[in-house]
Amino acid sequence: MRNNSCASASIWLLCTALSGCATPQYAIRPTPTPDESEWVVDLERTISAYQAQELERQGSRLIHAGERLWGFDVASVLRRLSRVTERPSLPYRVFLLQDRDPNAVALADGRVYVTSGMLNYLSSRGSREDELAAIVSHELAHTVAQHLIRRYRQLQQQQLLMAVVGVGTAIASQQGGSSIGSLANDAASLVTSVANSAYSQDQELEADQLGARYMARAGYDPYSAVAVLRDFRRFAPGGIFLSTHPDPERRAQDLERFLTETTPASSTPASVEPQRQRLKAAQRLYPAGSLSWQNLQRQLDDLDALD
Ligand SMILES: [Zn+2]
């Protein structure tokens, strides 16, 4: 997508290669099929070791099984959720990071970090385990969907494109001396770039949907993720968690729509009438008779049968 910040031809090429320049549209995302080939797992470990060093410098510490913090058994929430992901065998463990900013992050190798600010914030809402599960499951989704590996591949493609542009410029100006050697396949600088890069907005929305799936599979109420997102609106947009994520209201709307369109009527914990209203609101977004409209109508019919 053409974007104001993508003025020159070469930069626009890079923007088409990177999803960051596009405004993500609502879509139901497929569940991921993780690539656990040796080089991918090695790369995930390398990037994670680099990131963990920085988090250790900031004073992170392991949260032990059975340990209660702000009313939460954080390790047990992580264990319950990680088992139902598409990567149940990673060595998952959770760390506490002393930081007043409500934040959480997961590394590619199964390490998850939750800040004291996040636990304090969730505790102010009543230490509801479903709400902690909403935060943890979103972070796990980044790991399971291998968003860092996708980012690595995008940056690799970007470096190659830059190298090609560099060669073109060198040939045009008769300077010779291609820059391919210095730009392409520079693995060390790629690892650093990936480790320091944010996820795309598209990946954030995907993580919301995957996280909600894991919550439902683990027996948590996925609608509590919508409630937490709606409450996030009261934070200033300067916080790390919010500045790297799409607008919380946009996320809440997308997630609510996803849950309405994918959750079978009988397994939704809410009462029948609110479900009926949500389904009707979602149905109004589609032309009458379209596939999505029919899918929602089937769920409305199921609800009527429950009455
Ligand atoms: Zn995220």
Walk me through what this model shows.
Helices cover 58% and strands 6% of the residues. With 307 residues, the protein is α+β, with helices and mostly antiparallel strands. It folds into two domains: 38-147 and 199-261, no CATH class; 265-306. Strand 5 and strand 6 (111-115) form a beta hairpin. The radius of gyration is 22 Å and the shape is globular. The chain binds zinc ion (ZN). Zinc ion binds at residues 138, 142, 199, 204, 207, 245.
Tell me the layout of helices and strands.
Elements (H helix, E strand, L loop, with lengths): L8 H9 L20 H20 L3 E2 L5 E2 L2 E2 H9 L10 E5 L6 E3 L4 E5 H9 L4 H16 L2 H26 L7 H4 L3 H10 L4 H18 L4 H10 L7 H4 L4 H15 L9 H12 L7 H16 L1
Parallel strand pairs: 4-6
Antiparallel strand pairs: 1-4, 2-3, 5-6
Helix pairs in contact: 1-6, 2-8, 3-5, 5-9, 5-10, 6-8, 9-12, 10-12, 13-14
The structure holds zinc ion.
